[in-house]
Amino acid sequence: MILSGAVVFDFRIDKIPNPYIITGVLVLLTQQIVSNQNIDLIKTLISVIIPIIILLPLFILGFLGGGDIKLIAMIGFCMELREVLLIFIMAVFIGAVGGLLKGIFNKSIFNGLKLLTIYLKKSIATISVEKKIPDITYLELANKDQLKKNGIHFSAPILLATTILLVIQQYGVLINYGG
């Protein structure tokens, strides 16, 4: 439910407001307390902080918005780290397939790939030659029309990935996490 609201905000105003994220965190924590679940503070903080650290470079380079990272971190308040990371990996796959289909449907896939190639070349040159982080993000390089045509709202793949994981867990399908 909380993720659905975030998706609505993302589609309507291209942002997930901080007060909404904070409210979501408070609701999730309250739900855990009311349902008598033991909250392991260290595990919870790890499930929140590690995804932020991992995703921060994608934010700096402009591939993810801040709201997307905060949304993933919010999920960490009610799920273990391995589940949060699995959700992110599934969301990336879902988002890639969705973006590819959208690009094919809009007949703009080659323009999107061309823009990505230009950005990656500039970034690699800046990092390797100048030894610094690029001063332009992917989102700044693309114009608003290109983003509307080729971009996706990553909150939707996050919602879908979370839903898939919860359904799998609810119906007893075992996932071997390797441990």
What can you tell me about this protein's structure?
- It is a single chain.
- With about 180 residues, the protein is mainly alpha-helical.
- The chain has one domain (about 1-170).
- It contains 9 helices and no strands.
- It is globular and about 55 Å long.
- It starts with a helix and ends in a 9-residue tail after the last helix.
- About 20% of the residues are buried.
What are the SSEs and their pairings?
Elements (H helix, E strand, L loop, with lengths): L1 H12 L4 H17 L6 H20 L5 H10 L5 H25 L3 H21 L8 H4 L2 H7 L4 H16 L9
> Which band does the percent of strand residues land in?
under 5%
The computed structural class is mainly alpha
Overall strand count: 0
| Domain module tally | 1
Q: What best-fitting shape do the alpha-carbon axes yield? A: globular
Computed CA radius of gyration, to the nearest angstrom: 18 Å
Distance between the termini: 30 Å
H/E series, N to C? HHHHHHHHH
Helix content: over 70%
Biggest sheet features: none
How confident overall, as mean pLDDT? 80
Helix segment count?
9
**Could you list the spans in which at least 5 consecutive residues all have pLDDT below 50?**
none
